[in-house]
Amino acid sequence: MHFQVITLFPEMIESAMNTSIIGRAVGNGIIKLDTVNLKEFSQNSYGSVDDYTYGGGAGMLMQCEPVFQAYQAALSKVENGKRPPRVVYTTPQGKVFDEETAADLAQEDDVIFLCGHYEGIDERVLEEIVTDNLSIGDYVLTGGELPSLVMMDAVSRLVDGVLNNKESAETESFNNGLLEYPQYTRPKEWHEKTVPDILLSGDHKKIEKWRMQQAIHRTAERRPDLYAEWLEQRGIY
Ligand code: ADE
């Protein structure tokens, strides 16, 4: 998987992507990351890439040409030239990113992320280059770097070889549509709270059943929307 990120803040992307599990995948080449610094494509001597909006209104807008040239620079580094790369624009106006979108993007060889700042980007260049408008939720952030990082993390962990066996086993539960059951480690007693007896019983069948019940209960309580979907998938209405 080759990610490219068009951004005003490449250091923010690089530092996060070189950390922890994703950092390990970048280090061993399973994930490849290139950043494209928008400032390098400024069209003036001040090094700016934004201007006032036509029609008035507060705030500045990122201009077409620096964004387009940065995109062309990214295109020239695409690994698998057989198909045009997906270009994700991170915006609160996009479709809300979820596990299904992550799985879809994980099938690609190349994904380019475009991070907006200020009041956004001139619509004309977005029309020309963006294939996917994606949001990470109904709130507004100051820029697209954090959403891009969130999406790259979720996509990366679905790429073969990024997680080791232990890590993938640990995070499988969301895939069957339920939230994770509660888990405990040593000590057996802490603040007068004890670990459920069944987990100490050594009876793996019973433990599995208990965990499933807990996962169902927790999902129904915390995420009724997910629970309804889970029931529907099983033909229970
Ligand atoms: N840019 C600003 N806010 C955002 C959000 N919630 N999701 C994606 N991109 C954004």
Describe the structure.
The chain is elongated, with a radius of gyration of 22 Å. With 237 residues, the protein is of the alpha/beta class. The protein folds into two domains: 2-156, SPOUT methyltransferase, trefoil knot domain (Alpha/beta knot, 3-Layer(aba) Sandwich); 174-233, tRNA(m1g37)methyltransferase, domain 2 (Trp Operon Repressor, Chain A, Orthogonal Bundle), CATH 1.10.1270. Helices cover 38% and strands 18% of the residues. The longest helix has 19 residues, at 204-222. The two termini are 40 Å apart. It is built from nine helices and nine strands. It binds adenine (ADE). Residues 90-92, 135-137, 139-141, 144, 147 line the site of adenine.
The CATH architecture name of the largest domain reads 3-Layer(aba) Sandwich
CATH superfamily of the largest domain: SPOUT methyltransferase, trefoil knot domain
**Class of the largest domain in CATH?**
Alpha Beta
The number of distinct β-strands equals: 9
Task: Supply database-style keywords.
237 residues; alpha/beta; Alpha/beta knot; Trp Operon Repressor, Chain A; 2 domains; five-stranded parallel beta sheet; two-stranded antiparallel ribbon; 9 helices; 38% helix; 18% strand; elongated; binds adenine
